[in-house]
Amino acid sequence: MMLLLVPVGLATVVGLVALWPGDEPSRARQAAELYVPPGTTYHDARVASVAPFDCSLPGGEGQPAQQLTCATVVTEVLDGSGAGEFVQVDLPAEVFAAGVDEGDVLVLTRDAGAEGPAAYAFFDYDRDVPIVVLTIAFAVVVGLVARLRGLASLVGLAFAFFVLLQFVLPGLLTDQSPVLTSLVGSAAIMFVVLYLAHGFSARTTTALVGTLFGLTLVAVLGEVAVATARLTGLTSEETNTLLGFDPTLDFSGLVLAGVVVAGLGVLNDVTITQASAVWQLNEVDSDMSWRELYSRGMAVGRDHIASTVYTIVFAYAGAALPLLLLFELYAQPWTVVLTSSAMAEEVIRTFVGAIALVLAVPVTTAAGAFFAKAAGTDAGVATDRRMTARLAR
Question: What transmembrane ranges does the database entry give (predicted)?
């Protein structure tokens, strides 16, 4: 098994070195900087008073007027060079409708380059407290239940975010292949995360083999599916914004890169569970043949496949819920809806990930059964040798 993984590991390291994005800002980053006034900073500000006002829109031809309420708030800047200042900003109707009260903390932008005093504007709500509390609660729960292994998984998660933020995302904004960038980054994440969370063992290596097989299959199937279906990748507001920043980006490749990254968690879950099941079955009855061990392992795998397929489909459906609601409003046949560019992207993304997931199960099970029996045979030979040596003495 190591004869297979060592070259793959070396290829991953070489890929990281060769594809690591440099310090030169990409064309998209240079274009994005033009949309934000130079010197713009972000500051927390506490709401001191709220004054609602009517900002309704008049109705058009055959359309009723929209009754809207906006608000003007006075806030105290809490940090930066303007700390202690009281500034007035207007809030749009959707922000005021979400709820703004005295004492709330908002995030404001500060344009120091504006004529006259620095200009402040509403940017977003401050969400530090709920996010920090949930993060701490998540870490505590994982540590208490999973103990050292759970804490190791958190360290692995931090490494995964490091690779995504420092390698994958900047690399996708360059001229490099999005598929190759996402594959190399995903492989690097899996090598570290799996061994860190589950220990260096033949069982973990089996899961890694299955995961790498699944990722490769996602890339190959996705490449064929995206090209055959002629997916442009320009189906959301975000991708159209990216198009404005850099029209030369490979948006079809970004679709595929998203499928690869999305498959990381599910493939990891399925392969490590399947490898553990095979090893546990072998420990319970080490006299089982490879064929019987594979058969029993697949019995577990089929149950896992049945439940995980639902997980993938409903996860994508939940992420695409606003899109589904729009289709519900349009008077279009479902045959047209399902083959539309926006919907086809989600369908292909789901099916490619599901196919790779399903096929990764028998591959992981077969590898696990083979190496479990091989490890058991080696252990048995070593035990026989020790017993022979003791009798000889």
Answer: 129-146, 153-173, 179-197, 209-229, 249-267, 305-327, 347-372
Higher-pLDDT residue of 339 and 67 is: 67
Return the residue matching tokens 């595929």: 256
Sheet with 105-111, edge to edge strand ranges:
86-91, 69-77, 41-54, 105-111, 119-125
How many angstroms separate the first and last alpha carbons of the chain?
36
| Complete DSSP assignment for 135-168 | HHHHHHHHHHHHHHHHHHHHHHHHHHHHHIIIII
Q: Kindly report the pTM of this predicted structure.
A: 0.78
Scanning the chain, the segments in alpha helix (DSSP H) are 2-19, 27-33, 93-98, 128-163, 169-172, 178-198, 202-229, 237-245, 251-284, 290-319, 321-329, 334-338, 341-392
Domain boundary among 125, 157, 188: 125
The residue range of the domain holding 244 is 140-389
Distance CA 134, CA 304 (A): 29
116 and 221 assigned to the same domain: no
As for how many domains the chain has, the answer is 2
Are residue 255 and residue 147 in the same domain, yes or no? yes
Write out pLDDT tens, residues 169-219. 999 988 888 889 999 999 999 999 888 888 888 888 888 888 899 988 988
Residue 190 forms part of a structural domain = yes
Residues 275 and 352 both lie in one domain = yes
**Average model confidence (pLDDT) for the chain?**
83
pLDDT digits (tens, 9 = 90+) for 310-364: 777 777 777 777 777 777 777 667 777 777 777 788 788 888 888 888 899 999 9
| 183 and 18 Cβ atoms separated by less than 8 Å | no
**Residue 75 host element (H or E):** strand 69-77
